Amino acid sequence: MSVEQFDVVIMGGGPGGSSAAAILAPAGLKVLVLERERFPRFHIGESLLPGIWDLWERIGAIPAIEAANFPPKQGIMFGMFNAKEDVALLTAEYPKYFLRNYAFHVERSKLDQILLDNAQSRGAEVRQEWTAKEVLFDGDRAVGVMAGPNGKEPHRIEAKMIVDATGRDCLIARRLGWRRPDPALNKIAHFTHFSGGYRRDQRDVLTDASDILPNSTATDIHAFEGGWLWYIPLSGDIVSVGAVLDAKWAGHIKGPQQRFEYAVSKCDKVRDWIAGATQTMEMHTISQISYLNDSFVGDGFVLIGDAAMFVDPIFSAGVTVATRAGVYASDCILDCFKHQDFSAERLRPYEARIKRPMLSIFRMIYNWYSILDKQEANNIIARARRIPLLRERFIVLLSGGYEKMDLERILAAAGENPEDAAHYGPATLVDKTGGRPVA
């Protein structure tokens, strides 16, 4: 087969890759998306954030997403170590910060199909069940890929820009030795679906009935010694339940199902909520949850979404960050084509731009696990129930407002030293002079 030529090859059709394609193709570039699976396919990451609406607007996906009738998500409920009263953090309380003050709980198979179809409708060429086996380099510069239909001999496809959206496979980062697991977040997750689990009545959560959207729900997070559980009602009567355990706790229990059941047994509410439910899916596992790559850019390539880093799922940041990375990377790639300069230095503004919200996320995650380790009854999440300013700032950040809020301001509102925020976060995101994002 003769060598194919494209302006941009995107390896991976998830939210990051499809979002990048949806911006680059309408700009007049010849864009190819290679997706090794046939959509729809199962994926985790079902709780979304209101901070994603401006991104969906940018890629033109809102009408199709609205038509899917996903159940609206109007907040997060925190249950801390079987405390009698949960902490409700509801975006509807502060609608001024976001395009819309709610998000969705989604079946990722359905959402990802919508986003990939959207990229194709905007001019990208999409090839499903095609695998990129290798990225081709001329010296240090990426110049193409070896790819082909699954099970067949790959062939050469050349492009001026390669976008690695291969998820946790991290195709380029692994080749270059850039992938760095975060030892401070050495966690393991086990998750599955149930039919017939408990569903909250939103009237118990939102006191103003006029704020309640039809079929709306909330994400539940419940902390216990050694980890935490998520509980996410999806469409119909399906709920997604996951347990995230510290590796030192998980190591004492053999088997994913047994670890999951152990975690559920530590939380009275979740145990009761699924007591009469039926598990409908085999147990899935993700180990070494969090990692960061040394860099997100090189000559002729960028890394986006999980191919750049994978954050702990506690604050449901995955889809929002991947989509934001796709949008930010596309802005930088368009600048590359404008100047016909595809160097790492020309792409560096993308890396600096995406690392700023990432630092906010990672600091909150580190702080969360500090709360779990100390098991303090008067932690800053509990205090958010009675301190209005703290509550507002928490809600903004946990709703995806990563560029509107940070841990420094949250600590200040909680009466703590904002400079302590510099102690949280991986070294690859923080410089040595005071906790600023690395550019």
Topology:
Layout: E1 4-11, H1 15-24, E2 31-35, H2 53-59, H3 62-67, E3 72-80, E4 87-89, E5 103-104, H4 108-121, E6 125-128, E7 130-138, E8 141-149, E9 155-164, H5 171-176, E10 179-181, E11 187-195, E12 217-224, E13 227-233, E14 238-246, H6 247-250, H7 256-265, H8 268-273, E15 278-279, E16 284-287, E17 291-293, E18 297-298, E19 301-303, E20 309-310, H9 318-339, H10 344-374, H11 380-383, H12 388-398, H13 407-413
Parallel strand pairs: 1-2, 1-9, 2-6, 3-12, 9-19
Antiparallel strand pairs: 3-4, 3-5, 7-8, 8-9, 10-17, 11-14, 11-15, 11-16, 12-13, 13-14, 17-20, 18-19
Helix pairs in contact: 1-4, 1-9, 2-9, 9-10, 12-13
Query: What CATH architecture label of the domain at 4-62 and 108-181 and 292-356 applies?
Result: 3-Layer(bba) Sandwich
What is the percent of helical residues?
25-40%
Uncertain stretches of 5 or more adjacent residues: 431-439
Number of helices: 13
How would you sum up the major sheet? 9 strands, mixed
What would your notes on this structure say?
The chain is an alpha+beta fold and 439 residues long. It has a domain at 4-62 and 108-181 and 292-356: FAD/NAD(P)-binding domain. The protein is built from 13 helices and 20 strands. It has helices spanning 15-24, 53-59, 62-67, 108-121, 171-176, 247-250, 256-265, 268-273, 318-339, 344-374, 380-383, 388-398, 407-413, and strands at residues 4-11, 31-35, 72-80, 87-89, 103-104, 125-128, 130-138, 141-149, 155-164, 179-181, 187-195, 217-224, 227-233, 238-246, 278-279, 284-287, 291-293, 297-298, 301-303, 309-310. Strands 3, 4, 5, 11, 12, 13, 14, 15 and 16 form a nine-stranded mixed beta sheet that branches. Strands 1, 2, 6, 7, 8, 9, 18 and 19 form an eight-stranded mixed beta sheet that branches. A three-stranded antiparallel beta sheet has the order 10-17-20. The longest helix is centred in the last third of the chain and has 31 residues, at 344-374. The two termini are 42 Å apart. The model is unreliable at 431-439 (pLDDT under 50).
